[in-house]
Design goal:
Number of helices: 19
Order of helices and strands: HHHHHHEEHEHEHHEHHEHHHHHHH
Radius of gyration: 30 Å
Structural class: mainly alpha
Helix content: 55-70%
Distance between the termini: 38 Å
Strand content: under 5%
Strand order of the largest sheet: 1-2
Shape: elongated
Bound molecules: arginine
């Protein structure tokens, strides 16, 4: 026999089994159970404090809810699939346990403000966890970068050799990408940390609720402003999904890089065995599956963002049941990103780089051509003309299987009188690397500056994040007293 629904009074008959199972969100929103209980705890406290319900009833509710929380944490809470969602389940179990008082819990509340409160609290925690992992990956990368500020490798554009860079510089590029990701998450956090409770179904409530109180009890900065906007709003989930997708695009690019670097054509690095798998038929194979899956799973986060945008697009204001389809994607993006972050850091940490191979790769592809042109500019030639002259020298080298630095002084003079023996010293790869001293450049001292400034920002993100984690722990401790 199906459990009674929260809203059964208006109906002569219950919904069909098919309708119940079709409309249920329990398989997905069970994940919000913890947040649902703490949300109810704050609400019940407030109801008692302001006198909407009797103090003793509020206390009965609070102790029932605390027990629910303990049971949930120890895995002793069974939810009924016939009850449509996690909110209904919690209220039902509570009422079964505490009796009449349970029937007063939902006073001055709707599932519309309730679900938004629960979901925001989930995203809030998800952001703190995600940022923590992002910072860890940044640190793994910086650790490697610090040792490689003098390691020369080819820098690419269009996947063609472009200019020499250091491996440390290259790794730091990833760090700054991830830094923006962390900033985006922390920024979204500030916007989402407002409490929906008290918005009711859509228009607020006639009960004398204290929204500041519930907001503070749940660790929000303040209550939301407009009740109708509040129950309609899933911007926080969308921002989170975007931030996850953006970070996954960065991780995907790192995955791609690892696939390339560990391939026999590049051999810039050897994948640690712990992150590789073999082939069922080809005994020699060592495949970079983890890196490939990170790359592949970015599709999940991108798809989730599209799904969420599509759910919200065109909905009229206020709550619409379509919005029940908002959680699965957010949960999935969170799981995808956090699991990929947990793999990518250690993978870069344990990679063994083939520095010699990287240096040898720099021999081909005229990585020093720009420097030769710049050298002519220093000797007075306009850059556009210098570009032509070096282009002609490159063409000559290609035809004769030579490098710019192996041209004789006579050959050089053939291209421009301004060239001489010094020109050849000027374009050694080391010199090219060390010369790029513009702010943000690849010269070792510049990369060291980048490392220092990245570390300072990581530390400030870390303390912002840890500060919030500690603050929320205190909030929960206080609430459960
Ligand atoms: N399970 C619903 C959801 O996730 C809860 C809100 C239901 N509200 C309503 N008016 N039917 O969106």
């Amino acid at each position: 026999m199906a459990e009674k629904q929260l809203w059964s009074g208006r109906f002569a008959e219950g919904p069909s089994e098919m309708t119940l199972s079709f409309t249920s969100s329990l398989p997905v929103d069970t994940r919000l159970a913890w947040y649902d209980i703490v949300g109810s705890l704050a609400h019940a406290r407030m109801l008692g404090e302001v006198g909407i319900i009797q103090k003793d009833e509020s206390e009965i509710l609070a102790s029932g809810l605390k027990q629910l929380l303990t049971d949930l944490e120890s895995g002793d809470l069974d939810l009924s699939p016939e009850l449509e969602d996690v909110h209904t389940n919690m209220e039902h179990i509570l009422t079964q346990r505490v009796g009449e008082a349970g029937k007063r819990l939902h006073t001055a509340r709707s599932r519309n403000d309730q679900v938004s409160t629960d979901f925001r609290m989930f995203v809030r925690d998800a952001i703190l966890e995600t940022v923590t992992l992002l910072l860890d990956v940044q640190y793994e990368l910086i650790d490697r970068a610090e040792k490689e500020t003098g390691t020369i490798m080819p820098g690419f554009t269009h996947m063609q050799h472009a200019q020499p860079v250091s491996l440390g510089f290259h790794l730091m590029a990833h760090v700054f990408r991830l830094q923006r990701d962390a900033e985006r998450f922390l920024d979204a956090y500030k916007r989402l940390n407002q409490c929906p409770l008290g918005a009711g179904a859509l228009g607020g409530t006639g009960h004398p609720v204290d929204r500041e109180m519930t907001s503070a009890l749940l660790g929000f900065d303040r209550p939301t402003d407009n009740a109708m906007d509040t129950v309609s709003d899933r911007d926080f989930a969308l921002e989170f999904a975007y931030d996850c997708a953006q970070a996954m695009v960065h991780l995907s690019s790192m995955g791609e890089e690892l696939v390339l670097w560990t391939s026999p054509e590049f051999r810039f690095a050897e994948m640690p065995d712990a992150f590789a798998t073999g082939s069922s038929i080809m005994p020699q194979k060592k495949n970079p599956d983890v890196a490939e899956l990170v790359r592949g799973r970015s599709s999940i986060a991108i798809g989730n963002l599209m799904q969420l945008l599509t759910v919200m697009k065109g909905l009229p204001l206020s709550y619409n049941r379509d919005m029940q389809e908002d959680k699965g994607s957010a949960f999935s993006s969170y799981e995808t990103l956090t699991s990929c972050l947990s793999m990518i850091g250690p993978m870069y940490r344990d990679l063994s780089f083939d520095r010699e191979r990287m240096a040898r790769a720099c021999a081909d592809g005229f990585l020093n051509a720009t420097d030769l042109a710049d050298h002519l500019v220093q000797r007075g030639m306009p850059f556009r003309q210098a570009h032509e002259v070096v282009g002609a020298a490159v063409q000559y080298c290609v035809k004769n299987g030579m490098r710019l630095e192996s041209l004789s002084v006579e050959e050089l003079k053939g291209f421009s009188d301004l060239l001489d023996q010094d020109s050849i010293d000027h374009i050694s790869l080391e010199a090219c690397l060390r010369r790029r001293t513009s702010a943000g450049g690849t010269a070792p001292e510049r990369v060291k500056e980048q490392i220092a400034s990245a570390k300072a920002i990581i530390d400030s993100h870390r303390s912002e994040c840890n500060g919030e984690i500690v603050r929320l722990d205190e909030v929960w401790e206080e609430l459960r007293k």
